[in-house]
Amino acid sequence: MSDQATAQRFDDRAGYQAAISGLLTGIDRSLYIFDTDLTGTGLDGRAAVERLTTTLAASPRAEMRIVLHDGGPLQARMPRLWALCAAQSHRVQIRQTPRSLRHLTELFMLNGSSALVIRTHSNHWRGKAVSGDGVLCAGYRGRFDDIWEACSCCISTTKLGL
Q1: Where is the DUF7931 domain (predicted)?
Q2: Is 23:109 a contact under the CB 8 Å cutoff?
Q3: What is the pTM of this model?
Q4: Residue 113 buriedness (CB in 10 A; 0-12 / 13-18 / 19+)
């Protein structure tokens, strides 16, 4: 890590959600999320959705990209977040991993190039929140881009029909 970089470790769900909340307060232009299904993130809470809505409204070039192993919980059990995704579908993109990538268990959220929350394994709450480490963030951004490109299945937020 660089001299300016800080890392805060967490070992439980509350610590993980607090790290994500901190990450959301500093979104500049982009938020990249790689998660199994978003259920443990707290992103479906009123405060998180309001923060994301405000960020997207304040910056017309802001974007969110989400890659999930399973999009079902987002669609069925997270109505606030799902409504935001639908309302901002031109700036929120969601993809689902192919079976060949379902073995990936290290979950992360990246706020542009300045901050990162890493959960070391999807079955455990242990991880860390890092800010100010451009090299580490760039590495995770490259990893996210590779995962994003490998996903061909998009989750649509629009309903088709009459």
Answers
A1: 16-155
A2: yes
A3: 0.93
A4: middle
What would the two tokens of residue 5 be?
């970089």
3-state SS assignment for residue 45: coil
Beta-strand relationship, 30-35 and 63-68: parallel
Tens-place pLDDT, residues 75-94: 999 999 999 999 999 999 99
Residues β-bridged to residue 39: none
b vs e for 28-37, b when ≥16 Cβ sit within 10 Å of the residue's Cβ?
eebbbbbbbb
pLDDT, one tens digit per residue, over 6-19 is 999 999 999 999 99
Q: Parse the chain into domains and list their residue ranges.
A: 6-154
Phi and psi torsions of 140, nearest 5°: -70, -30
Q: What is the 3-state secondary structure (H, E, C) of 68-128?
A: ECCCHHHHHHCHHHHHHHHHCCCCEEEEECCHHHCCCCCEEEEECCCEEEEECCCCCCCEE
Supply angle C-alpha 20, 41, 112, rounded to 5. 40
